[in-house]
């Protein structure tokens, strides 16, 4: 019986959700929540930005992002500096500690996933490599 697109979509949604939750369980030493780590990851990828830009990137309301940024600043993981042209705003950037937390969390997640991949045979790893490319295409569509 052929797999319909809708059936496959449901199977992928469940499998990807479980894999994502398991990967996110691998955290750095700071024990950040997912939204807190996401802010660090965005700043690592895109560089300094305003809390409003961070809120847009995460698709959350600005007051929620302001609270997240303040918590990260209190922990020394981000720094808030005056905006160079608008004194009413701040620019948020990673500190060395925040950068280290991003690297450590990603290292742990990569190590966990690599250990699972080591359990697979060559054909299974090739299948996953092909699937990764297809998922990349779907995600950017």
Topology of this structure?
Blueprint: H1 5-24, H2 34-46, H3 51-58, H4 62-74, E1 78-82, E2 90-94, H5 96-118, H6 122-140
Helix pairs in contact: 2-5, 3-4
Structure summarized in a few sentences:
With 141 residues, the chain is mainly α. Helix content is 68%, strand content 7%. The protein has a two-stranded antiparallel sheet.
The main sheet orders its strands as: 1-2
Structure class: mainly alpha
Catalogue the unreliable spans. Answer: none
For the termini, the CA-CA separation is 28 Å
Q: What does this entry look like structurally?
A:
This is DNA-binding MarR family transcriptional regulator. One of its GO terms (molecular function) is DNA-binding transcription factor activity. This protein has one domain (5-140): Arc Repressor Mutant, subunit A (Orthogonal Bundle), CATH 1.10.10.10. The protein has six helices and two strands, in the order ααααββαα. It has helices at 5-24, 34-46, 51-58, 62-74, 96-118, 122-140, and strands at 78-82, 90-94. Strands 1-2 form a two-stranded antiparallel ribbon. Strand 1 (78-82) and strand 2 (90-94) form a beta hairpin. Helix 2 (34-46) crosses helix 5 (96-118). The chain is elongated, with a radius of gyration of 19 Å.
């Amino acid at each position: 019986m052929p797999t319909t697109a809708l059936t496959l979509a449901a199977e992928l949604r469940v499998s990807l959700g479980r894999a994502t939750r398991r990967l996110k369980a691998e955290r750095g030493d700071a024990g950040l929540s997912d939204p807190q780590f996401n802010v660090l990851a965005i700043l690592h990828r895109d560089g300094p930005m305003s809390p409003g830009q961070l809120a847009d990137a995460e698709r959350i309301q600005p007051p929620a992002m302001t609270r997240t940024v303040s918590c990260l600043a209190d922990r020394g993981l981000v720094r808030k500096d005056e905006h160079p042209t608008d004194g009413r705003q701040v620019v948020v950037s990673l500190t060395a500690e925040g950068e280290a937390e991003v690297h450590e969390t990603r290292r742990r997640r990569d190590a966990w996933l690599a250990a699972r991949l080591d359990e697979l045979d060559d054909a299974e790893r090739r299948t996953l490599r092909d699937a990764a490319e297809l998922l990349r295409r779907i995600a950017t569509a």
